[in-house]
Amino acid sequence: MAEIRWTFEAELWLKDIYDYIALDNPRAAEQVVDGIYDTAQILKDHPEIGHKYQTPEKEEVRILQYGHYRITYAVLQDRVDILGVFHGALDIDKYL
Description:
96 residues, alpha+beta, 5-stranded mixed sheet, globular
């Protein structure tokens, strides 16, 4: 079982997602952020489940979908680092 570690940047993305949705509906914002978090927990037992993202770096980046959001992560030896959470409308290449 892999440990899941949320990077500071990923936590900021979650906060921004919550804040944006909460402007209209705080309950919906909580549900979305909880859903993203719960979906990421799958990576504890199945870290390779997401599809590979092509990156020029040596680090292998994968993406796991949750609704309109893409959870980006790197699989390390005994842990999974969540790198960010991006809305599907964003150009992910600008951030990775």
